[in-house]
Amino acid sequence: MKLIKLYPLFAMALLSSCSNDQPQQSGERIIPVAMAEAELRDLSVHRTVTAPVVAYLRVYVNAMTEGQLLDVLFEEGDFVKEGDLLARIDTRRQEAQLRMAEATLLEVQHHYERTKKLYEEQVIPKTDYEIAERQLAEAEASVRIWRVEVEFGEIRAPIDAVVAAKLVESGNTISPNQRLFTIEDHSLLVTRPALSEMDIVNLEKGQQLNLSFDVFPDQDFQGKIRRIYPAADAITRLFTVEVEVDQTQSPHKIRPGYLARMHFTTDHRSNVVAVMPESLVYRDSKAYVFIIEDGRVRQQEVETGIRRDGWMEIRSGLEAGQQIAAGNIDVLTDGAKVDVRGNFRRYGFAE
Fold first, then answer.
1. Which pLDDT tens digit goes with each residue over 150-193?
2. What are phi and psi of 270, to 5 degrees?
3. What CATH topology corresponds to 92-151?
4. What letter does residue 197 receive in the DSSP assignment?
5. Taking the CB of residue 2, how many other CB atoms lie within 10 A of it?
6. pTM score, two decimals?
7. Is residue 65 within 8 Å of residue 40, measured between CB atoms?
8. CATH number of this structure's domain 60-86+157-183
9. Backbone angles phi, psi at 340, to 5 degrees
10. Which of 4, 13, 174, 324 has the fewest CB atoms inside 10 Å of its own CB, making it the most exposed?
11. pLDDT tens, position by position, 42-59
12. 277 Cβ contact partners less than 8 Å away, ≥ 6 residues apart
């Protein structure tokens, strides 16, 4: 009889226990996550390359005749104007040869005039007249040659420039084609770095860029791409990019030989929406993020771009400033309730 009385009590306790556990078993699961934020970032590719500054126009002044140098009138650092006399060569031998050629020409001219008159009177054949005519032309050419040789005794500047190198001294005996001076036009200075094909595809003529120099560490300078060489170097497989140094806006005088550091942007991706790759989940070949809104997450498909410096570009589907889940996202589903435990942090990546 005691067992019959106790059974209903046990059944009621069991039902009561089940009734108390039901809300807990059917209660919504709260998933702890870390939070991240979609940011506007600069994911452009920046390159810094170095190359020395050189004068765009450099002229090697060579001797055009032989002889002894009588005077050398300029030296390194001097400014010269086009036509200025740089040096003089002893041309007494050439002048003597010129006088001989002129005397020969005078004699040949008299012979030619007599021959021409006789030919016109039909006293001599045409071949004699043609020989005299050829001799006159040769004598005139000889005079012109020796006059040029005498003129070559004066070494003059071909352009307005600065003397970069003086390679001879007064008293030196020189020969034809021997280099005497190197002069440079410093009004246009350039630098010619070498870049890979992956970099030059995003560069173009006229593009502005920033320059810096080790001698002026706290100053910024401007440059402009003047030209890009059409073919790569056969050995290095690099393309030469010629950059003009803007001297009009330069706070300091730039000299050839300074080492220039050129800062290129080869892939412009500034102010793009970017997220940490850890906040992305891939399902069915599509990328998704979970946007946190009022304690829940909303699954959002996004279009991704390039991945660079530890960030993933988002081309569409997300706006800067939106908060997204960045940890424990593999177990998240659309509409899941979450508990934000803090901000997602990484180390070793550019911030």
1. 999 999 999 999 999 999 999 999 999 999 999 999 999 999 99
2. -90, 150
3. Helix Hairpins (1.10.287)
4. H
5. 6
6. 0.66
7. no
8. 2.40.50.100
9. -75, 120
10. 4
11. 888 888 999 999 999 999
12. 307, 310, 311, 312
